[in-house]
Amino acid sequence: MGIQMVMFTYLVTTVLHGTEVQVGIAQMSLTIMSMALLLFGGNIADQTDARSLLIRCHTIAAIPAIVLAAVVWSGALRFEWLIAYGLVMGSITAFTMPAREAMLGDVLGDDRTRIQRAVTTTIGVTFLCQIAGMLSASLAAVSGPAPIILLQAVAQLVGVYSSYRLIPSTRHADHAHMSEGSQLQRIAAGLREVANSEQLLPINVLTLAIGVLFIGAFLVLLPLILRAEFGATVAQISTMQACFWGGSILSSIVISRIGNIVNRGRLIVIAVSNGALILTLISIPAPLPVLYALVFAWGLGAGVMMSMSRTTVQEYAPVAHRARILSLYQLGFTGGMSVGALFIGIVAQALGPREATLVPAGLMMLVILWLVTQTKIWHIAALKHDAGTA
Question: Which of 12, 75, 87, 106 is the most buried (most CB within 10 A)?
Answer without folding.
Answer: 12
